[in-house]
Amino acid sequence: MKKTTLNILSLFVIAVLLVFSFASCKSNKQCDSSYNNETRNDNLSAEYNNETRNDNLSAEPPFSSTPSESSDNGTDTETNKPEAPDIPPASMADALFIGDSRTVGMMEYAGLTEANYFCSIGMNVFNIKKNRISVPSVGKVTLEELLSNKKYGKIYIMLGINELGYDFQSIINKYGDLLDFVNGKQPNAAIFIQANLHVSKKRSDSDKYINNKNIDRLNSELSKSANGKSTFYIDANPLFDDKDGNLSLDKTSDNAHLYARYYTEWGEWICKETAKVLKERQS
Question: Using CA atoms, how far apart are residues 211 and 213, in angstroms rounded to an integer?
Fold first, then answer.
């Protein structure tokens, strides 16, 4: 009897131990599962928070009233003002370009075929009135003959870089004489003094005369001849300069002249800038 009772108790203890063991194992699995779910949820929360932060960064700031945006008199805010319509590019059908090898490049590659070009490699303010130049669709003429026999609405001049090395004041004086001569022959034309384009840093650092310091000095002095009424100064250097103000190396093959494809960009810029300048003159 005692033996039977002992066996029953042993079986009961074993059963109890099995029950506890099973319960403990199930609890551990639930804990593991809960941890994994919490981990995934944390990752999703992090992604959501990152997206939320990114959305907040890209969102427009809350509206705030400032003097530049609104006023008490009910006028339109800056943000509500309609955008000014684009000004159509100016036509070059009545244009004449006068200049050196850079202007030769424009004649050949810019695509402004309706304009006339009085230009040659090496042209400068000291010889410009002496030379006879072949002008497409016109013939071989001097500048005086060209200006005396054809009327222009717009005349662009880029000269001066070949003259660097001469006495500086004599360059400025001769350039002034040229402006007076052109204006005298074409009093109704708008004359555009074009800033001389920079050279690359390599050329600038190695050339005693044709360097960007001298070019900037020349351009600055030439700009003073613009009066904003009949004579204007335009500067395309920002289109082609690197961050240090030198002709960008990826835009030139010889450290002084643009690759052919950039003359198109230059020509388009001139048409747009001309329209802008003439629009401002009318207002």
Answer: 6
